[in-house]
Amino acid sequence: MSTNTSQRAKILTIGCKVNRYESASLEETLAGHGYTIVNAGEVADLVVVNTCTVTHRSDSDARAMIRRAIRENPGARIVAAGCYAKLEPETLAALGVDLVVGNAEKPRLAGMILAGESGVKVNRSADPTILEPEPVTRFGERSRAFFKVQDGCEAFCSYCIVPHARGPSRSLAPAEVEKGLARLLTGGHREVVLTGVHLGLWGRDLSPPGTFIELLRIAEKSAFNRVRVSSLEPLEVTEEFLSVMAASDKLCPHLHIPLQSGSDRILKLMGRPYTGASFLERMEMAAAKMNDICLGFDVIVGFPGETEEDFEQTVALLEKIDLCYLHVFPFSPRSGTPAYDMDGQVDQPTIKRRAATLRALSTEKKSAFYARMDGGGGLALAESQVVVDGTRYTKARLRNYVEVLVEHSDSLTGVEFPVTLLRWDGKYLTGKVGGSK
């Protein structure tokens, strides 16, 4: 394997936290072999596009990004990787891409680049059965780092192509989890976000099998003071898990959960294994154990067959929960999934209207959640500097994911500090340094 000491490289990423982590690992490996990593707007000799395929829009974005990379980086070597590359490698190769790899090849992609490999290198004969470590020391210039500990999904929800692109669930071995956490600490990060495609499945494929609670215990034993969970399925929000989170001074009281619908009929069509009532029960249990917990949900609107009554059931369920925010996704038919040609496709104006209704509800819920924090306090982790209405602030985040602006100070960068919350003005929550945990 040769070392390149003069080439400039940039990695362009579309999609989820897992993709972003994999891109960070590739950047670090290439830099270790002499590549200079440059920003997206700079000209490079090597451009890697890490693709997503969760919707047709993601596919379109990937193709447009590849065409732009070819146009704006004359003579550069262009590499396409990731989910879209796994499913439709020939489509991307036809655009003029020099090397196409799927997800299974990502841990070895740097070596393939250094060796000058080209063509379509996608293994379509079998999905990977183990999760190879992809080391990351520095996750950009961030106080918070993502850490991929799991990959793959076996749920096969009727709207989702991801199991076909990512393969079955694979878990990072406990010893590798420990090494990865220690490595990120050396990079100066103060918070770690445990990330996976179906994170709650961690450990089930290991020998001997592990559990998600075991993963949390490993993270708690690290020197990180803040450990966050990226996303959990509703049925994985168990009483045991909530008790562990509530008792921990390291696990952040923040849950991001894919609800998708509040209609039992639509949930069944989606292939989701819970009901609106069971979802509500678990969210009420979470709020009872942690009164400051931040709950955020994914919701899909306009799934095939969704009637006005189904949609109103979703709204009614969400109104009952003391949530903080919603991520609203208009249904996007994805070829290769059962929902693609289901009966009852909802027209775009109706989808747009329903999405607007839920986004308005999200704004209302967030405002109420933030407003009740006036006069409170907690520990905040400084993330960046921002200018609001001509005033410079340090943007920081409480353990429950609430964002707060405090009077700017360079000394706060990357530091966790006590803050007293002052005022929610409907857009920003302000605070001052000082207070108690």
Percentage of residues assigned to helices: 25-40%
Shape, per Cα inertia axes: globular
Query: What fold name goes in the CATH topology slot of the largest domain?
Result: pyruvate-formate lyase- activating enzyme
Mean of residue pLDDT? Answer: 94
CATH class of the largest domain: Alpha Beta
Biggest sheet overview: 6 strands, parallel
Instruction: Count helical runs.
Output: 13
Percent strand: 15-25%
Sequence stretches where pLDDT stays below 50 over 5 or more residues: none
- Look at the structure and name the CATH superfamily of the largest domain: tm_1862 like domain
Q: What count of domains describes the coordinates?
A: 3
Question: Architecture of the largest domain in CATH?
Answer: Alpha-Beta Horseshoe
Number of strands: 19
List the strand order in the largest sheet.
2-1-3-4-5-6
Q: Radius of gyration over alpha carbons?
A: 22 Å
End-to-end distance: 51 Å
**Structural class estimated from helices and strands:** alpha/beta
